[in-house]
Amino acid sequence: MSRKPECFLKDRVDFSRIRRVLVVKLRHHGDVLLTSPVFQVLKNHYPHLELDALVYKDTEEMLSLHPSIDQLHTIDRRWKTLGLSVQLTEELRLLNRLKRRNYDLLIHLTEHQRGLIIKQYCRIPIAVSASYPRRNNALWHRTFKYQHPVFPMGKRHRVEQHLDALRRVGIQPTGSERQLVLEVGIDARKKVDSIMAREGVGAGSYVHIHPTSRWLFKTWDYEKVAQVIDGLAAEGKKVVLTSSPDKQELIMIDAILAKVKSEPINLCGKLTLKELAGVIESANVFFGMDSMPMHMAAALNTPVVALFGPSDPVEWGPWWVKKIILTSDLFPCRPCGIDGCGGGKRSECLSELTVEQVLVALEKVLQ
User: How far apart are CA 34 and CA 40, in angstroms?
Assistant: First the structure.
């Protein structure tokens, strides 16, 4: 008799004894969104499970309304600014909320030390994490009995690395389960529909450009972004421009708008994350950098044209979506992961990419 592949894992977790699972991802927005398949896979394989997530409060909209998540717990980074007494009080309240949930399994998807505290304080019997080189100590090994390998940069997509935590406890994801999950929500869709109606733009009739990133060394030259906007406008295409309300990003947007001759629809700094998702969802194509909105486009199945410089598309590229990724072949040093050439906040491998390359890629995707 043949055996199922997962049967070869002798210490796999018996999920008939697991009722509640806590998944922890304390990182940035895009990182959190890339965990979304973990919940879908768990629910698909074991529908009886109650699945909770713990993330930073500012990233919660990446997972809110996820159909497989029962409770979404958050940590407010602002606690640190309110004084030690307030911070400790809020931290203890959170730990007690988690403890009352009586989790059977902890899936810790970062090397954050908080995972050790949660595991011990909440008395969670089973815990899985990666075998991080910086956590190669007795305490980490005792806390996380189940550990999966860490891959070198550029060898494995971050989504697959997250799913490795499930493989280590005996769950083998299938192909279709690996898709990112991002729920826009009714309210955000209504707001976006209202905005687009006011601008005279219908769903599926515009190119969405999000040229900024919280990491400015990942962004392209603003003059070239302006030329792409004008190039699209010359072809009769509507362009919607977005960014976060961050001061540095808005400075870049102002520089772009000062160069354009056409009139893109400017929604920069005016949208919530869910509303941004609604704009992305209704676009013909998304053009941007290695950034959170690029991952949102992939989750919403909007075709992507993305520019990659210092970061590696093998690990961070748009996941499971129609895409064209543009990189420079002139720089064998990329991907370096450094914040600009020489640490100067400007990445020459991005600057080498041309306006023509981007317009051609956009035309291919639009066709």
Answer: 12
